[in-house]
Amino acid sequence: MQLTDLVVPLYHIDTSEHNEKFCKGSFFPSNEQGEWCGKGMYFWETFSNANKWLVSRSDNTEVKFSMASASLRCNKEDILDLTNVKSSEALYSIAQLLAAKYDVGLDLSKIGAVINFVHETLALQQASKNFSVVKIFGSYPRNHSHGLVAYIESKMSHSRRVKSPHATELVKIIYAVRENELLHDRKIIDPQEEAQTYEFSI
């Protein structure tokens, strides 16, 4: 059995029906073509970010939603890590080269479509290197919390928040997984029980 470089715990929010099936081996990838990670099944990197999304989804519908967790097991080269500037630059360059080579009118403002185009083109070329996972930052400027980092940021002047590097809770890490077999240890999470593991006791 081949060992993997990375094991990353992830969280997924979906309907209870879908999550039950996911835990039994099903896979529910998105066909996203717009502003996110392109095709794949989407996951949050942290419980708290997943839980905020769960609350948001549950408040806006009568459909029952739940949280599932899984372990992403893969190698470094399997991940297109767009939280890394060099990877983002490389994606931009290869997308332009492939679009010119195949005379494709690619809208570079639609990151999901760009990611899908590059992945599909590399697959058709049977390239030696392709990706199965996309990792990206999501900006959530209205997603305020009551934590220490959020408190400190709220005390900053607007100009400092905009112009100066500083700690923030407004950036979230999201994964889009394209291959079902990379996801292991699937289970339904009870948010109340999980939340207790992050609490301090004095």
Quick summary:
It is built from 7 helices and 7 strands; from the N terminus they run βαβαββααβααββα.
Structure description:
This protein is an alpha+beta fold. The protein has helices at 16-23, 47-59, 85-101, 111-124, 148-154, 158-163, 191-196; strands spanning 6-15, 41-44, 65-74, 79-81, 133-139, 171-177, 183-189. The chain is globular.
Topology of helices and strands:
Elements: E1 6-15, H1 16-23, E2 41-44, H2 47-59, E3 65-74, E4 79-81, H3 85-101, H4 111-124, E5 133-139, H5 148-154, H6 158-163, E6 171-177, E7 183-189, H7 191-196
Parallel strand pairs: 4-5
Antiparallel strand pairs: 1-3, 2-6, 3-7, 5-6
Helix pairs in contact: 3-4
* N-to-C CA distance: 44 Å
- Lateral arrangement of strands in the main beta sheet: 2-6-5-4
Q: State which percent range the strand residues make up.
A: 15-25%
Q: How much helicity do the residues have?
A: 25-40%
For the secondary structure, the number of strands is 7
Q: Are there runs of 5+ residues with pLDDT below 50, and where?
A: none
Broad structural category: alpha+beta
DSSP summary: helix tally = 7
**Mean pLDDT score, rounded?**
93
SSE pattern, N- to C-terminal: EHEHEEHHEHHEEH
